[in-house]
DNA sequence: ATTAATACTAATAATCATTATCATATACAC
DNA sequence: GTGTATATGATAATGATTATTAGTATTAAT
């Protein structure tokens, strides 16, 4: 398992029970994906058939509070979770309004904006950026 | 009332009943604020004591779909609504992690990022940017 | 080794935000 | 005036999430 993750677990005195490990493994198995709690539950049940939805919710919430996971909402009124980036910089998301796929990108050109905010007295510690539009595949299909 | 809003209502054949007008007036009275559905209900009840929460939800949803309102989620697991900007550019938000206040700012330096995405085949039609940190007032208080 | 304290779990109840349903009211077309 | 369409408020229902509880497991103290 990722060394940084192990460190964070230790830092927070978070005992990794079998159930919690199953949840974390699901997230590690799905790098780059954004899973809802229900999706995590279904995959975790393959590793531990008796795991309960409440345990999954508690675990996801806790891992997010430790910055091991990142929690956000795209569409549909429920939260989605993904593994946090290993450096503390977060990537951004592009949501395709046609197929619903969520793409990620790394470029971070927000420094200018953050500088302006800090010039106005804000201290910025995090940000969240989402683009909405159409992915190359859907644009291709729409041309036909 | 705002001319652009009236146009959009007409375009969408959206009849402005007294109840819907009360909801819209609440939003107009609260420019720059981000109200939850419950907050809108409480203020709308001052204009129309009998208005129901279901009507408020239906109206907020409809006005958001017409780009008269903007719907987003900050914290707390419920949606908040605000009047959309009159040009189609949306402003951005800064959420203070201490007092919870939501600030707005206008600067739009995302063109470079959007250009890069479009160079990769995406068609971008909207974006959402939120910064999290501490506002000048809370930073002041934390220094004492 | 035993006991007490603490932590964790699954099941399920409860909560909350939101939406669906339904009966009634209002508006509109003819 | 009548029939149809739309809107409303109340409330039930839904879905996502959290709280509660009893039982179990782990850890700490002795």
From TrEMBL, chains A, B:
GO terms for molecular function: DNA-binding transcription factor activity; transcription cis-regulatory region binding; zinc ion binding. InterPro entries: FUR (IPR002481), Fur_C (IPR043135), WH-like_DNA-bd_sf (IPR036388), WH_DNA-bd_sf (IPR036390). CDD domains: Fur_like. Its cofactor is Zn(2+); Mn(2+); Fe(2+). Binds 1 zinc ion per subunit. Binds 1 Mn(2+) or Fe(2+) ion per subunit. The keyword Zinc applies. SUPFAM superfamilies: Winged helix' DNA-binding domain (SSF46785). GO terms for biological process: negative regulation of DNA-templated transcription; regulation of secondary metabolite biosynthetic process. Keywords: DNA-binding, Iron, Metal-binding, Repressor, Transcription, Transcription regulation, Zinc. Fe cation binds at residue 127. It comes from the Bacteria. Zn(2+) binds at residues 96, 99, 135, 138. Belongs to the Fur family. This is Fur family transcriptional regulator, ferric uptake regulator.
């Amino acid at each position: 398992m990722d060394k940084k993750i192990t460190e964070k677990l230790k830092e927070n005195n978070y005992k990794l029970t079998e159930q919690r490990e199953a949840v974390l493994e699901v997230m590690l198995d799905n790098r780059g994906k954004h899973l809802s709690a229900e999706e995590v539950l279904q995959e975790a049940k393959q590793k531990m058939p008796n795991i309960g939805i409440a345990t999954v919710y508690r675990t996801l919430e806790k891992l997010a509070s430790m910055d091991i996971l990142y929690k956000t909402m795209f569409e549909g009124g429920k939260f989605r979770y993904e593994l946090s980036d290993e450096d503390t910089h977060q990537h951004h998301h592009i949501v395709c309004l046609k197929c619903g796929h969520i793409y990620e990108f790394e470029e971070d050109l927000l420094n200018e904006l953050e500088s302006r905010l800090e010039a106005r007295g804000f201290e910025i510690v995090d940000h969240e950026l989402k683009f909405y539009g159409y992915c190359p595949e859907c644009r291709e299909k729409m041309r036909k």
